[in-house]
Amino acid sequence: MNEISPPLPETGLRSEARPTQAEAEAAVRTLIRWANDDPLREGLRDTPARVARSYKEMFSGYAIDPVALLERTFEDVDGYDEIVLLRDIRIESHCEHHMVPIIGKCHIGYMPLKRVVGISKLARVADAFARRLQIQERLTVQIANTIEQVLQPRGVAVVIEAGHQCMSTRGVHKVGVSMVTSRMTGCFRDDPATRRELLAMIGNRSPGSMES
Ligand SMILES: [Zn+2]
Is 148 a catalytic residue? Predict the structure, then answer.
């Protein structure tokens, strides 16, 4: 599996005009009524507006071009050609099947070939894809493919460990379960020693650095 297409387009719904804030608020009022409560009672009166604003933030990734985030690279690295790893990046996403949170962490590694990028940019790429309706598998691949495409390094490795609230607060109600996904390209895929080194770097941490 090399390419996973971005979410949606096939329905064509994306080409319709984006709903207004008022339309989004009306939809939330409908869901409140569906939950059997009264959208006009005092505690809920401002909820539709708040929810619409939250959605703007939680799904702000659609407005970000992840490729553009990586455009500024540095070539003056004095021949540095070992693994660069940013680990324990907090991930806040939403499952596209239930629209409830996926919370976890992401480790992003790459083996540079001439070019490196500012490390905060790697975290921003993760956020740009996380702040969309997602499945963890696609999120993992999208982050890796973007880094691969722009930096063209010797290899990219993305590992995500996350808990899914659609599993813990509904459905099977299993708490404390995390799902792990990974996408390895280039030297991380082809060279077992390099892959082992990366996984050791991800796993090798001081006590207390694991809390999320
Ligand atoms: Zn779900």
Answer: no
